[in-house]
Design a protein that fits this description.
180 residues, alpha/beta, four-stranded mixed beta sheet, three-stranded parallel beta sheet, 7 strands, 23% strand, globular
Length: 180
C-alpha cells in the first residue's frame, strides 16, 4: 500500500476552514479530503471527496471538534498507536498562549511516545523552552517566531512547515495573514 501524507485540521470551525481552503487553492479539488464531526461519542464522516485518478499523495481531513473533547483525545491516542504512521502534530491557533496550553494537554501517550508537537508561537518560544525543561514536554517545539529564534532541529521539518504554509496561504500576501 502506497503511503500518503495526511494533513488533518482539528478545529471547532473546521468546515469553514475547509471551504476557505477550497476557495483559495485548487489543490483540495484534486486531492482526497474528508470532513468529519464528533456526534455524541462517535466520529462521523459527513462529507468526502475522492477525485478521479486520485494521483495526489496528500489526503486532507477536517475534523470539527475541540481538541479537549474526550472522543478527540481517544482519536489522538489511536493515532499515537499506529506503528506505521509518522505522526507529527502542529498546533496553530491564532493565539500563541492558547497553542502552548493546547500542546501541554494532549493525551499523555503522545509525550511518552515522543511524538513531535510543534507549537506556533508568534513572538517568543521562551514558554515552550520552559515547558521542555521538564521530563514530560521535551517533544514540544516552537515555530513561527517573527524575530528569529526558530528552533528547527532538522531541515526537513522546516520544509514541511513551509509547504503547509504555502498551500494554506496560496494566493495571499503576507499582509493578509491574521494577527496573533
Amino acid at each position: 500500500k502506497k503511503r500518503r501524507t495526511c494533513i488533518t485540521f482539528v478545529d471547532s470551525q473546521a468546515k469553514k476552514k475547509m471551504y476557505e481552503l477550497m476557495a483559495s487553492s485548487y489543490m483540495l479539488n484534486v486531492s482526497t479530503y474528508l470532513y468529519s464531526e464528533i456526534v455524541g461519542d462517535n466520529f462521523v464522516t459527513q462529507e468526502s471527496h475522492v477525485p478521479e485518478g486520485n494521483f495526489m499523495d496528500i489526503e486532507w481531513h477536517f475534523i470539527q471538534a475541540d481538541i479537549e473533547h474526550p472522543t478527540m483525545r481517544k482519536i489522538f491516542e489511536q493515532w499515537s498507536d499506529e506503528g506505521d504512521a509518522l505522526l507529527t502534530v502542529a498546533v496553530c491557533f491564532d493565539e500563541s498562549d492558547k497553542n502552548v496550553a493546547a500542546g501541554m494537554v494532549l493525551p499523555r501517550k503522545m509525550y511518552e511516545k515522543n511524538i513531535p508537537i510543534w507549537l506556533y508561537t508568534r513572538h517568543s518560544g521562551k514558554l515552550v523552552d520552559i515547558a521542555r525543561s521538564s521530563n514530560i514536554y521535551d517533544n514540544l517545539r516552537p515555530f513561527g517566531m517573527e524575530h528569529g529564534g526558530l528552533c528547527f532541529e532538522q531541515d526537513k521539518y522546516m520544509k514541511a512547515v513551509k509547504m503547509i504554509n504555502y498551500v494554506y496561504w496560496n494566493g495571499r500576501t503576507p499582509n493578509d495573514y491574521p494577527e496573533a
